[in-house]
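User: Here's a structure from my thesis project, written as structure tokens. My advisor, Dr. K., wants to see whether a designed sequence matches the one we expressed. Can you design one independently, without my sequence as a hint?
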């Protein structure tokens, strides 16, 4: 029962996946169960039978031919295949289990001062599939739209819709969906998926049903700003031998394009969902477990990965293909500014010190201002002025400024109008709590209803 509970399926982003846990959870149970049965058979049936039974006969008669050696050979023919099957089952189960990478160096709870910005070291950013026309005019042979057929739905931003409370509302897509360049006779995509840059494997999710991402891989790349993630979702398979923590180089094959989970993505719409962005909080895993929700993808849960526009990232490369995330964030327009009270400097600015502006954080001035884009990526932060701190009053946070043109569709839904004023929505409250979470700060636990998940993986 405990194993069945651990394999319970909840969507990583968006609504729950509408099929049972048999595909992965029971599959793993069957593999382990068969392995245990065969081990028991070997231990209690085959092995004892392989010994001589001659001691059971009280008298050895010379006129009776001793058949024990023949019996041993016959039993050995049964024993060897069973042992081989045991080894195969164990290896199959071991290779199919989720393999999170060793966690990055943890953030010290006492270290609240941003370190000095890292020395500039740009990296080469490459296309993640054989498709080389990503910066051309969007067409269906380059990008894969949703069932709506609108090519915009394959791009980044508030380009989609979803149902909420009987209404159709905008939905935010946090990546791009790249169409296959080649298929086999059955229509299955054949495109390999490549690492977009040098880095290391942060996380592998080999089970199609544990997330709306299906089978997916997360890589981390060193950037002058701090570690940048790239995500590759809906894979048919992960490259054999690839493990969490492994180094990768740009252009290395890490998987093959697919349409997982197949329950929500038909074969005809097979594609690669690609993201690039920043990791919100390295304490997210602890915060998420406090919510007692499933599945637990650690810090590599989609809720903790805030993506920028991948096409903007590819466009920001220099002529020689070199890239820095700071170039993208500098040109990303701000959607709103938010003042909030904090007791500790957010982990986000400890890992991305170049995004902190002005004087260093001081605990005796526990109000900061966050500048946020429409996709929920924090573009920069600073200490709040006295006037901004006074505007908070007794509130834990308040919206200071909004670009209503940028939020005309507002698919991310972090803020909304309430009584004529812009305020954080319940989705925004959850986003802010996970961003600011610190183990030494008492924080209310929010219920993570399915509608609060980012629904951008399809």
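Assistant: Designed independently from the structure alone:
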């Amino acid at each position: 029962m405990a194993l069945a509970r651990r394999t319970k399926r909840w969507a990583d982003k968006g609504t729950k996946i509408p099929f049972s846990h048999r595909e992965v959870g029971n599959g793993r149970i069957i593999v382990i169960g068969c392995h245990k049965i065969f081990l028991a058979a070997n231990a209690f049936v085959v092995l004892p039978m392989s010994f001589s039974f001659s001691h059971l006969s009280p008298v050895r008669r010379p006129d009776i031919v001793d058949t024990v050696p023949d019996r041993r050979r016959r039993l050995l023919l049964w024993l060897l295949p069973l042992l081989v099957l045991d080894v195969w089952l164990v290896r199959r189960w071991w290779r199919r289990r989720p393999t999170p990478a060793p966690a990055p160096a943890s953030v010290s709870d006492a270290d609240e001062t941003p370190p000095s910005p890292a020395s500039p070291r740009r990296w080469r950013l490459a296309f993640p599939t054989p498709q080389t026309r990503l910066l051309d005019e969007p067409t269906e042979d380059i990008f894969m739209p949703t069932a709506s057929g609108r090519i915009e739905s394959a791009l980044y931003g508030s380009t989609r819709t979803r149902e909420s409370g009987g209404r159709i509302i905008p939905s935010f897509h946090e990546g791009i969906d790249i169409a296959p360049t080649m298929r086999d006779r059955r229509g299955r995509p054949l495109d390999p998926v490549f690492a977009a840059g040098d880095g290391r494997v942060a996380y592998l999710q080999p089970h199609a049903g544990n997330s709306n991402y299906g089978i997916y891989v997360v890589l981390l790349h060193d950037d002058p700003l701090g570690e940048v993630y790239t995500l590759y979702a809906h894979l048919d398979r992960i490259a054999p031998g690839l493990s969490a923590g492994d180094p990768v180089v740009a252009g290395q094959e890490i998987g093959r394009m697919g349409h997982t989970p197949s329950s929500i993505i038909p074969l005809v719409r097979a594609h690669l969902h690609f993201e690039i962005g920043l990791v919100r909080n390295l304490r997210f895993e602890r915060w998420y477990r406090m919510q007692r929700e499933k599945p637990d993808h650690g810090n590599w849960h989609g809720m903790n990965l805030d993506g920028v526009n991948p096409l903007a990232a590819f466009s920001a490369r220099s002529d020689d293909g070199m890239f820095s995330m700071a170039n993208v964030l500098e040109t990303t327009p701000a959607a709103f500014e938010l003042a909030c009270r904090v007791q500790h400097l957010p982990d986000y600015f400890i890992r991305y010190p170049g995004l902190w502006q002005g004087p260093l954080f001081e605990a005796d001035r526990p109000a900061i201002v966050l500048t946020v884009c429409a996709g929920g990526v924090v573009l920069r932060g600073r200490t709040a002025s006295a006037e901004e701190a006074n505007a908070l009053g007794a509130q834990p946070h308040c919206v200071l400024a909004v670009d209503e043109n940028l939020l005309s569709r507002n698919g991310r839904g972090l803020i909304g109008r309430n009584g004529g004023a812009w305020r954080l929505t319940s989705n925004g409250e959850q986003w802010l709590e996970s961003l600011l979470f610190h183990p030494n700060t008492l924080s209310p636990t929010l219920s993570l209803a399915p509608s609060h998940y980012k629904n951008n993986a399809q």
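When you compare it with your expressed construct, this may help: The longest strand covers residues 228-238.
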